[in-house]
Amino acid sequence: FFRKDLSTFCAGEEYWVDSRTVYIGHKEPPPAAEAYIPQRYPDNRIVSSKYTLWNFIPKNLFEQFRRIANFYFLLIFLVQLIIDTPTSPVTSGLPLFFVITVTAIKQGYEDWLRHKADCSINECPVDMVQQGTVVRTQSSKLRVGDVVMVREDETFPCDLILLSSSRGDGTCYVTTTSLDGESSHKTYYAVPDTMAFKTEQEVDSLHATIECEQPQPDLYKFVGRINIYKEREDPIARPLGAENLLLRGATLKNTGHIYAVAIYTGMDTKMALNYQSKSQKRSAVEKSMNAFLIVYLCILISKAVINTVLKYAWQWSADRDEPWYNHRTEIDRERHVVIRAFTDFLAFMVLFNYIIPVSMYVTVEMQKFLGSYFIAWDKDMYDEELGVGAQVNTSDLNEELGQVEYVFTDKTGTLTENNMEFIECCVDGHVYIPHTQCVPVCTSVYQCHEDLFFRALCLCHTVQAKEEETVDSIKRGIHLGKPTSFYISSSPDEVALVEGNTHSYKQHLIHIIMDRNSEIQMYTIKPREYLLFCKGADTSIFPRVVSGKVEQVRARVEQNAVEGLRTLCVAYRSLSPAEYEEACHQLSDAKLALKDREQRLAQAYDLIERDFTLLGATAVEDRLQEKAADTIESLQKAGMKVWVLTGDKMETAAATCYASKLFRRSTQILELTKKRTEEQSLHDVLFDLSRTVLRQRSLSGLSVECQDYGLIIDGATLSAVLKPSPESSGSGNYREIFLEICRNCSAVLCCRMAPLQKAQIVKLIKASKEHPITLAIGDGANDVSMILEAHVGIGIMGKEGRQAARNSDYAIPKFKHLKKMLLVHGHFYYIRIAELVQYFFYKNVCFIFPQFLYQFFCGFSQQPLYDTAYLTLYNISFTSLPILLYSLIEKHISIEMLKRDPTLYKDVAKNALLRWPVFLYWTCLGLFNACIFFFGAYFLFDNTTFTSNGQMFGNWTFGTLVFTVLVFTVTLKLALDTHHWTWINHFVIWGSLLFYVIFSLLWGGIIWPFLNYQRMYYVFMQMLSSGPAWLGIILLIAISLLPDVVKKVLCRTLICPLKLVRMLNYSQVKTLMRTTSTQMSFPF
């Protein structure tokens, strides 16, 4: 009993948790009915914003200081305020304030846009029925229980239960384009007892309550019932399901108007529950940044510890501990040595804290935000047919596009066009092809089955005829300037079947539609005789068939599947009146259930969906998208493994894989399917496949040509593979064996996949020991789970809807655009941000290490080497713009070359530019340059009479000389690394250097009244007045840049020719090889 109660209380989506009672029109039920218990529900306001006017500052500050770097600089700033430190609190406070302010402005602006969008939705006008009249009000003022009137082409303001419509049969047609993007027309129904209320007065007289489940996000599930009260009669209960629920965001079509009651409002609507925040994805670059940050934090602490220890070792003698010119106060003498040591440690931490680049995070955010516009502006990724281009839903993963190792793609609508064309049908083993002559078969049984077959095709669908309509700014139903009718449906397969039967078998369609009884899902042929028609996949139909030409139809279905056609089987059975009445009774009881309704409906369906007679099968073609094969081939050459995850049958999916060049004719196919595991145990099949691929891998090191393998697995076998073993060891746990097989296959096809299984596959690969970067791409609602699971999710704006595009990180019009998205944009983004991160750490090492060295020459007195203004503006002004611009427009290689040679993608794969050896190289380069700056200036200052008048240089002149060499060196290094020069590069790079010179002249050339003391007065001009200083600056810059110049020369003479050979296409290499009899050489 306890377990039952607990499971009911903790149930998920599949079980009933709680219910709500809605009083239509806010009318109390009759006294004899249940007690009136008013309930409070949220209003109809939509809130997608994150902040309010009152909580923006505290909430935003809390979120920003959760970052390690920001919190660290806040601590440093507080230390500078509390104790006597060698630098002013402004040097840490101003950069921190700048970073926090810029980030807050960016996030505040984005949230203001969300507020603006919310207001436009909440202030939308809505027609509400009150006291028999229609009153116009704002959408935000709607309450649960209000009755509203919605007209054609208007959007539903909240989740509604349909009461009646202007159509005589109580139906209405709806498109959910703004909800899940599906532009097909769906049919919704009013219950028979309310469909007769056609006017405002009649609707207002309705006395009823609705009992339904509490809000939950599943768009296609709803459980409820309506109780209708009439005078002196018992209430009438009618079931309510998803076919009665009109979702917020959907649009009324092909219907004059409807009356409906609000059931879920505001943030309780299914749309709001579906579009709440997704889990945050972090790129590999961000993880590398955090790792590098921890390393530099350890370096910082070690520097502070070393200097603190050396300070007290140097001051061990009395004359150094308290020299004659610097006597201590009594308070300092009485302070404990541990406290003094800790204070000195904090002071050194403050002095060296600039090695942590706080401005790097805001620069990276700006680079990602601004860089994302290049994808949206790319004209090559604009589709003329759809009238849309690529969209960026998140800019945090731009660089991840250049690190993809696994691509998981849907088939229908992603690799194919999802534009179905009727090819043929098979009736009792006889094949019919449109527009061809077929030999008639005159047997009575065959003619009866033929008639029933086409009757089933004409009845088992949701197709409607529609006149002229505009969908997504595209006019449909216009031919030669005149309006014509066309078909609309929730499935393109159904439209193809109906069009095929209309053109070829019009007489059957006209005759059958006249006999259709639309109230029930069974159809009468003769009085008191009932037929049940069924159309579905072969795996669903064949197990329920007991008669018919099963083997002939099965053979044709398998042949069509091999050719890449989509097949459906058609069957029927006769029902006696008693069976019909029993089925209706069970279905009615199941529909009225609030708890376990789906399970009870499934049991009721199982009782009648059996003992079918097979009539035949249909075949429709879904053509491959333009350049889909070329895109997959390019991705494979780039080193990515492509997996196709689809719900189609194995033969159909395999044919598409061959057509798209995922599988080649030389590929040896390994099958891991239910059919094979029925012949052998799963354990034996897995180990056979494992031995096959491992044997080939052992031969790959020899001169034997490597065999290409492709794996096919179905959903049932995948469930068995992923099923956890009850034992800790043994043959039950097959995950690692399965992964080992997949690693040695060039491509994998997963067929008969449920949406959840697609996400499980992606999660399995993500969690493998290599931790590869994954990308999932799809176009339908069933692809959302894997799109959210993958590191990078890409949605295609196709015919199955826009839900995948809305839940993705990026959206593209066609599959072919994935090639440029990864091979060009991904490559560039990764190169740019990797250079940005390494450059930031490099220039801060160059900046702070001379300060560390300076302590050995000033008695570890915490004397700063640079002026406060230089400390503050180094990362904010002097060196920030050049690297930001570089990270936005740098192109180390042409776009055409990247598209022509996909193997270049491998050069940056596996986070190649942010590995520890590369990080160590940049750090050592920074240390080398810092030593050149400091010791070069030190030996230059060995002769203290540098000026023409014999005046000596002081410590501020020494620091300014080092800082000048530093700024010019790090900026010119970036100029050396730049391959793609534009006028903007020249303006920013030379402009930054000019700004530094002008600022230094003004800072030291004017007596500023707001400064208590001005130690930099005339220092910069005095330094520039010395000829040796000019010579020293030029010489030190040249020596510092020497390693970069040597590296660039070696790259151009040794590495670049090899890369150029690789980038030449195969035909050019063969031509050169034929024209040269000796070893090929290139004069570069």
TrEMBL record:
<dbReference type="InterPro" id="IPR006539">
    <property type="entry name" value="P-type_ATPase_IV"/>
</dbReference>
<dbReference type="GO" id="GO:0055037">
    <property type="term" value="C:recycling endosome"/>
</dbReference>
<feature type="transmembrane region" description="Helical">
    <location>
        <begin position="869"/>
        <end position="889"/>
    </location>
</feature>
<feature type="domain" description="P-type ATPase C-terminal">
    <location>
        <begin position="805"/>
        <end position="1054"/>
    </location>
</feature>
<keyword id="KW-0460">Magnesium</keyword>
<dbReference type="GO" id="GO:0005524">
    <property type="term" value="F:ATP binding"/>
</dbReference>
<feature type="transmembrane region" description="Helical">
    <location>
        <begin position="953"/>
        <end position="975"/>
    </location>
</feature>
<dbReference type="InterPro" id="IPR032631">
    <property type="entry name" value="P-type_ATPase_N"/>
</dbReference>
<dbReference type="Pfam" id="PF00122">
    <property type="entry name" value="E1-E2_ATPase"/>
</dbReference>
<keyword id="KW-1133">Transmembrane helix</keyword>
<feature type="binding site">
    <location>
        <position position="646"/>
    </location>
    <ligand>
        <name>ATP</name>
    </ligand>
</feature>
<dbReference type="InterPro" id="IPR001757">
    <property type="entry name" value="P_typ_ATPase"/>
</dbReference>
<dbReference type="Pfam" id="PF16212">
    <property type="entry name" value="PhoLip_ATPase_C"/>
</dbReference>
<feature type="binding site">
    <location>
        <position position="647"/>
    </location>
    <ligand>
        <name>ATP</name>
    </ligand>
</feature>
<keyword id="KW-0479">Metal-binding</keyword>
<feature type="domain" description="P-type ATPase N-terminal">
    <location>
        <begin position="38"/>
        <end position="92"/>
    </location>
</feature>
<dbReference type="InterPro" id="IPR023214">
    <property type="entry name" value="HAD_sf"/>
</dbReference>
<keyword id="KW-0067">ATP-binding</keyword>
<feature type="transmembrane region" description="Helical">
    <location>
        <begin position="291"/>
        <end position="314"/>
    </location>
</feature>
<keyword id="KW-1278">Translocase</keyword>
<feature type="transmembrane region" description="Helical">
    <location>
        <begin position="345"/>
        <end position="364"/>
    </location>
</feature>
<feature type="binding site">
    <location>
        <position position="782"/>
    </location>
    <ligand>
        <name>ATP</name>
    </ligand>
</feature>
<keyword id="KW-0597">Phosphoprotein</keyword>
<feature type="transmembrane region" description="Helical">
    <location>
        <begin position="919"/>
        <end position="941"/>
    </location>
</feature>
<feature type="binding site">
    <location>
        <position position="779"/>
    </location>
    <ligand>
        <name>Mg(2+)</name>
    </ligand>
</feature>
<dbReference type="GO" id="GO:0005886">
    <property type="term" value="C:plasma membrane"/>
</dbReference>
<feature type="binding site">
    <location>
        <position position="758"/>
    </location>
    <ligand>
        <name>ATP</name>
    </ligand>
</feature>
<keyword id="KW-0445">Lipid transport</keyword>
<protein>
    <recommendedName>
        <fullName>Phospholipid-transporting ATPase</fullName>
        <ecNumber>7.6.2.1</ecNumber>
    </recommendedName>
</protein>
<keyword id="KW-0547">Nucleotide-binding</keyword>
<dbReference type="GO" id="GO:0016887">
    <property type="term" value="F:ATP hydrolysis activity"/>
</dbReference>
<comment type="similarity">
    <text>Belongs to the cation transport ATPase (P-type) (TC 3.A.3) family. Type IV subfamily.</text>
</comment>
<dbReference type="InterPro" id="IPR036412">
    <property type="entry name" value="HAD-like_sf"/>
</dbReference>
<feature type="transmembrane region" description="Helical">
    <location>
        <begin position="1017"/>
        <end position="1042"/>
    </location>
</feature>
<keyword id="KW-0967">Endosome</keyword>
<feature type="binding site">
    <location>
        <position position="411"/>
    </location>
    <ligand>
        <name>ATP</name>
    </ligand>
</feature>
<feature type="binding site">
    <location>
        <position position="566"/>
    </location>
    <ligand>
        <name>ATP</name>
    </ligand>
</feature>
<feature type="transmembrane region" description="Helical">
    <location>
        <begin position="65"/>
        <end position="83"/>
    </location>
</feature>
<feature type="binding site">
    <location>
        <position position="412"/>
    </location>
    <ligand>
        <name>ATP</name>
    </ligand>
</feature>
<feature type="binding site">
    <location>
        <position position="648"/>
    </location>
    <ligand>
        <name>ATP</name>
    </ligand>
</feature>
<dbReference type="InterPro" id="IPR044492">
    <property type="entry name" value="P_typ_ATPase_HD_dom"/>
</dbReference>
<keyword id="KW-0813">Transport</keyword>
